[in-house]
């Protein structure tokens, strides 16, 4: 039995090296960098920022002149103006308000881009740790399958010499089949996790890679009040909501300036080849049949609604910080429980069962039960590590400060 266990252990140690040959080694930061360069949704958001900036530049320009060309075609009566050019000067503030609206809308679009960027970084980090967790789970199931194979072969030899009943061979064969099925399921889940990450990176889902950053645990020392204030200062969701509020308030001003007089320059030529006349026109928007009043009320209501949204976003930001901190604390406590004896005790139990089985003191069922316990503990610990790292990614997203780079990437 001992040579089988030694050979099984050597195979486990050499598999990760062999499995990584020919596949790209990818760190979590490299994954983030690739996503920021290639993710199509983020690239689309960048073009929206460019469009908003172009809109702001256009809003700063003076209103286009109106050119009227009306030559006489039929009859002796002349038209009032063969050529007329009217250039509004927008001295009543229309251009300034239009520019103000476009500037705040561009700021809101830039904040939306930052939101998309931060959401992408969070998704990439969390999916990366999903891949790392799935890769570790494949290794655990591979170990389990190799041990099940070793136990099955040992049961066959004991049956040949009459040291074990046939039922033990059947049970070990069933357990080997189950172990292989669990390994196949774990490999499928790993492939799916890798495909999800590749999609976030903006590349084909079947590109081969191996996560090189391990699942590690570093306790987080957090100042809850500081993180909440940092979130309110750094979260682009608040910046977007506030920029949208300023744009809505500027729209109220845009309606009000429509009632102000304005001056326009006018050049007019009554006939082609005739004398050219210049005039200064004054627009007096004195009459309103209700459209301006309705537009003002609509703009005011939209501004009030947006102010309520700003408050709602602020409350949501604070809640997200609290939720992320609670999840970090929960995963830290869970990891400490495993590290304070659960893992070592399960490993000790499995070793004792294997030694007893090799010496003939334990039954196959005792070895199987000990191995199942060890596999379950390792799987749960692996999940706790991944959940902790994903919780840190969520906390970094919620607070707007680089929590992960400070606490984990060491």
Your description of this structure?
The chain has ten helices and six strands. It has 410 residues and is an alpha+beta fold. It has one domain: Outer membrane efflux proteins (OEP) (Up-down Bundle), CATH 1.20.1600.10. The strands form two sheets. A four-stranded antiparallel beta sheet has the order 2-3-5-6, with no helix packed on it. A hairpin with a 6-residue loop joins strand 5 (262-269) and strand 6 (276-283). Helix 4 packs antiparallel against helix 5. It is elongated, with a radius of gyration of 36 Å. Residues 1-21 and 406-410 have low confidence and may be disordered.
Please tag this protein with its features.
two-stranded parallel ribbon; single chain; 410 residues; disordered N terminus; Outer membrane efflux proteins (OEP); alpha+beta; 4-stranded antiparallel sheet; disordered C terminus
Q: How many helices in DSSP terms?
A: 10
Choose one word for the global shape. Answer: elongated
Instruction: Assign a percent range to the helix content.
Output: over 70%
Mean pLDDT: 84
CATH topology: Outer membrane efflux proteins (OEP)
Within CATH, the superfamily carries the name Outer membrane efflux proteins (OEP)
Provide the CATH architecture: Up-down Bundle
Largest sheet: 4 strands, antiparallel
Could you state the order of secondary-structure elements as H and E? HEHHEEHHEHHEEHHH
Low-confidence stretches: 1-21, 406-410
Q: Give the C-alpha Rg.
A: 36 Å
State the strand order across the main sheet.
2-3-5-6
Provide the CATH top-level class: Mainly Alpha
The class by helix and strand makeup works out as alpha+beta
Tell me the fraction of residues in β-strands, as a range. 5-15%
Q: How many strand elements?
A: 6
What is the total number of structural domains?
1
Q: What is the rounded distance between the termini?
A: 42 Å
């Amino acid at each position: 039995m001992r040579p089988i266990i030694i050979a099984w252990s050597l195979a486990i140690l050499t598999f990760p090296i062999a499995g990584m040959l020919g596949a790209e080694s990818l760190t979590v930061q490299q994954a983030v960098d690739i996503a920021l360069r290639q993710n199509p949704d983020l690239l689309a958001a960048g073009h929206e920022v460019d469009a908003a900036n172009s809109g702001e530049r256009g809003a700063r320009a003076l209103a286009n002149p109106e050119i009227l060309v009306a030559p006489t075609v039929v009859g002796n009566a002349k038209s009032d103006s063969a050529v007329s050019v009217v250039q509004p000067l927008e001295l009543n503030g229309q251009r300034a308000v239009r520019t103000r609206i476009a500037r705040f809308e561009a700021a809101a679009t830039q904040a939306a881009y930052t939101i998309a960027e931060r959401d992408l970084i969070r998704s990439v980090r969390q999916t990366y740790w999903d891949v790392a967790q799935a890769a570790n789970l494949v290794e655990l199931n591979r170990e389990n399958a190799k041990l099940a194979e070793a136990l099955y072969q040992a049961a066959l030899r004991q049956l040949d010499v009459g040291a074990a009943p046939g039922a033990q061979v059947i049970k070990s064969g069933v357990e080997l089949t189950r172990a292989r099925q669990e390994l196949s399921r774990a490999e499928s889940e790993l492939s799916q996790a890798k495909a999800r990450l590749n999609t976030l990176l903006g590349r084909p889902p079947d590109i081969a890679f191996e996560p090189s950053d391990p699942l590690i645990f570093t306790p987080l020392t957090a100042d809850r009040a500081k993180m909440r204030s940092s979130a309110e200062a750094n979260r682009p969701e608040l910046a977007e909501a506030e920029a949208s509020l300023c744009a809505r308030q500027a729209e109220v001003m845009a309606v009000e300036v429509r009632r102000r007089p304005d001056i326009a320059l006018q050049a007019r030529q009554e006939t082609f080849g005739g004398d050219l006349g210049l005039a200064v026109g004054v627009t007096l928007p004195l009459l309103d049949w209700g459209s301006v009043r309705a537009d003002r009320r609509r703009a005011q209501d939209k501004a009030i609604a947006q102010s309520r949204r700003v408050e709602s976003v602020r409350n949501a930001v604070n809640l997200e910080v609290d939720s992320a901190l609670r999840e970090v604390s929960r995963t830290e406590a869970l990891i400490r429980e495993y590290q304070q004896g659960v893992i070592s005790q399960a490993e000790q139990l499995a070793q004792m069962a294997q030694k007893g089985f090799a010496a003939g003191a334990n039954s196959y069922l005792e070895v199987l039960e000990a191995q199942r316990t060890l596999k379950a503990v390792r799987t749960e610990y692996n999940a706790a590590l991944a959940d902790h790292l994903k919780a840190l990614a969520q906390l970094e997203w919620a607070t707007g400060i680089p929590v992960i780079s400070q606490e984990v990437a060491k």
